[in-house]
Amino acid sequence: MIRVLLIDDHEMVRIGVSAYLSSQPDMTVVGEAENGKKGVELALQLRPDVVLMDLVMQPMDGIEATKEIMSAWPEAKIIIVTSFLDDDKVYPALEAGAASYMLKTSKASEIANAIRSTFHGQSVLETEVAGKMMKKMRQKETLLPHEELTNREMEILLLIAQGKSNQEIAEELFISLKTVKVHVSSILAKLGVQDRTQAVIYAFKHSLVK
After folding, report:
1. N or C: which end of the chain has fewer CB within 10 A?
2. Residue 192: which region, alpha, beta or left (left: phi > 0; alpha: psi -120 to 50)?
3. Which residue in 119, 99, 97 sits closest to 21, CA to CA?
């Protein structure tokens, strides 16, 4: 039997999913939680074979709950089941350690099959999610390194090119020195350079600095 834990803040969703999964000959629902915090506690206590995780919940959302579960129990198999297809939900959830990503609009049988596949070590992405990921990967392949910089990172890169120190950048942008350092590290990583000097050379080479 595949032991499943349900984590969703909508009671009716839990009732419906639990009833369907319990009707499957190879599945049993071992617990339910109405938020991420309770879900983390139950996951670590019950150690289910598969966790079905909603995303938007209070006081802890599904992404944070996934991070906490995976940090304490790296072998956990988590399936995100949500209504959201936004990039700011999909990619953070997968980066947090979720094995699969399904939508609540998926058929019940598709969710059940995703549970079986995830239980056996496979990753399942709902068709729309897989399509978005492929599109993003193709776009990333055609981007120049600096085109992946955020607006704030580009702003800081130009200030670096002007010869300003981290402290001067922090004061000019009204952000903390720690925040500047985080941005600088991200800039160097995205540009594929080792230090600030190489970043400045990159900026001039690609005509980012006039």
Report:
1. C
2. left
3. 119
Closest-CA residue to 151 (of 159, 141, 139, 163) = 159
Predicted TM-score (pTM) of this structure: 0.65
- For the cut 60, the answer to whether the pLDDT of residue 146 exceeds it is yes
Residue 210 lies in a domain: no
Residue 101 to residue 114: CA distance in whole angstroms:
9
Residues 84-131 have pLDDT tens digits of 887 778 888 988 999 999 999 999 999 999 999 999 999 998 877 777
Q: What residues contact 123, with CB distance under 8 A and at least 6 apart?
A: 99, 100, 117
Q: What is the mean pLDDT of residues 181-188?
A: 93
Q: Alpha-carbon distance 189 to 83, whole Å?
A: 33
- The token pair at 61 is 């959302």
Nearest-angstrom CA–CA distance, 139 and 104 = 27
Q: Give the whole-angstrom CA distance, residue 101 versus residue 111.
A: 10
Last residue of a domain, one of 99, 119, 137: 137
Q: How many domains does the chain have?
A: 2
Query: Which residues, 6+ apart, have CB-to-CB distance to 166 below 8 Å?
Result: 177, 180, 181, 184
| Inside any domain, residue 46 | yes
The CATH number of residue 184's host domain is: 1.10.10.10
